[in-house]
């Protein structure tokens, strides 16, 4: 097993048309990666030289088709895999419908597993090292009554990340999670738009009183994906201004 990533590794980012995903695509492109974004949303032409495929991460066939198309396009498997696609459906454990519960776990947990597993299998088949980053959340750490399914999915993702780190460590595939707090974009950006006033109360709740810029998340993902990281696996990089150090979130 070679330990070093290719000089210009191929990177795939699920949910790559979203705010964190797209910022990560630009950051990894800057770092010299060939980048493919997969997203359930249809894309207009991307003019940054970035490969795109429509994919539903909760559907195994669709995920496999994405990885096949990436290999065809770049001529090698993706050695950097960012499992980033996510959704939030607000609801408590008592009020959530079964459909919302299943959809939330299907994208955030099962979808991330399918993305990481499919990518890792291609690397194992090619005897190549790699980097997998799960985009988790502070919500994995502290119960939040309005986001029961999302929090449960992200908590599951944390254990999946550690488990895959153990399974793949001796194959040179490092697996880590990033856990952002309140990002001023993407899923929380949408909620802030729908419920004005929430952004300032969210900011007040964070120990360092800041919402997180999407670029800082992307830079931190790129850090975890770097071939310079040789011994970091099974870790969670908390990027939450101290939010998860608090005891309660409601
Ligand atoms: N924004 C935040 O405050 C925040 C905080 C912590 C963690 N996160 C995590 O960051 C990740 C990215 O979220 P974001 O904030 O950029 O939101 P976003 O809505 O901008 O991006 C999410 C992307 O995932 C895509 N997606 C949804 N379902 C999919 C599916 N079935 N298959 C493929 N793609 C699908 C969406 O189309 C969208 O482009 C998520 O995993 C989210 O849980 C976000």
Report strand order across the widest sheet: 3-2-1-4-5-6-7
The ligands found in this model are: nicotinamide-adenine-dinucleotide
Low-confidence stretches: none
The CATH architecture assignment turns out to be 3-Layer(aba) Sandwich
Shape: globular
Overall helicity: 40-55%
**Beta-strand level of the residues, as a percent range?**
5-15%
Can you describe this structure?
It is a single chain. It contains seven helices and seven strands; from the N terminus they run βαββαβαβαβαααβ. Helix 1 packs across helix 7 (214-225), helix 2 (60-74) packs parallel to helix 3 and helix 3 runs parallel beside helix 4. It is 42% helix and 15% strand. With 250 residues, the protein is an alpha/beta fold. The protein binds nicotinamide-adenine-dinucleotide. Nicotinamide-adenine-dinucleotide (NAD) is lined by residues 14-15, 17-21, 39-41, 55-58, 84-87, 107, 111, 135, 137, 180, 182-183, 185-188. Nicotinamide-adenine-dinucleotide (NAD) binds at residues 14-15, 17-21, 39-41, 55-58, 84-87, 107, 111, 135, 137, 180, 182-183, 185-188.
